[in-house]
Amino acid sequence: MNEENFDPKQSLLLIESMINRAKDKFAEDGSMYLLWGWVVFICSLTQFVLMHFFKYPYHYLVWFASWIVVIYQVVYIRKKNKYRRVRTYTGYILGYVWLTFVIVIFLLAFLIGRLTTGEYYSHISPILLTIYGIPIFLSGIILRFKPLIIGGIGCWILSIAAMLIDNYDYQFLLIPLAMIIAWIIPGYLLRAKYKLQSQ
Amino acid sequence: MFKDLDPILHSQLRLAVMSLLISVKEAEFTFLKEKTNATAGNLSVQIQKLKEAGYIDVVKQFKDNYPQTICKITPVGVKAFDLYVKNLQTYLAK
Q: What is the CATH number of the domain that holds B62?
């Protein structure tokens, strides 16, 4: 590949084939969606059982399990970066979309009790569902992957539905439901697409 | 005959490298080598030429004790690539 003389047609073909080669890998294998989808699904459902059936006052302690997953994720990302030889714009933007999401969730965890009065916990589910929809919807747009777009919109629909449910315990059940439609189902579909392409 | 075409870009391997780099944020030397099927020696010579022209940025660093060369297209490179494609189109229109 080093002859200096080649005609313009060949030039255009070369440019086209290289651009296609650069983007030929669909980089998202869905593992993070599945990991977090299942973790939040299990934690929130466990919390519901502790809260509703056992009336256990410290039901929220179940979320400490997610810290173990955070540590696992840090190790996983570091390992993945070690083998990464190319950085695409898609991956770069997606990284910041999820970072924004994590920052907003943490900020809200601190702010929600201070900003809302009365039974502040009754606002948590609709607010969380509204925010869950953002990174999922954006990821769907960036990756051009419809199940994520639908999942994101699904979260927003559930956030409206949450307002119609008076019982806080039952309202809380919308969180695991959101995990199924926005994380777990798109996660398996992403994995299937990724496997299909690597064959 | 092709006097309007940028001689730095009108070379198969250099054009291949530029086309790959215009599609991604940054890429490692080994990625470019794999996608272009070039030899390491030839690829480093062409990368050096692109770097001297100011079309790409090359960062050499160490990652877990292994040397790593990261290439990234510059704004000058994007402009040159754009102009090259525009000039190509005038040839094809003839």
A: 1.10.10.10
Q: Is A1 a domain residue? A: no
Per residue in B8-62, pLDDT (tens digit) is 998 999 999 999 999 899 999 999 999 999 999 999 999 999 999 999 999 998 8
Inside any domain, residue B38: yes
Sheet with strand B56-63: strands edge to edge: A86-87, B26-28, B66-73, B56-63
Q: Tell me whether B39 touches chain A (CB under 8 Å).
A: no
Could you give the ipTM of this predicted complex?
0.84
* Closest CB from A1, A3, A87 relative to B16: A1
Best CA proximity match to A47, nearest among A161, A130, A152, A128? A128
pLDDT, tens digit (0-9, with 9 covering 90-100), for A121-151: 777 888 889 999 999 999 999 988 999 999 9
Q: Which residue of A has its CA nearest to B64?
A: A82
Q: Which domain holds residue B66?
A: 12-88
pTM of the model: 0.81
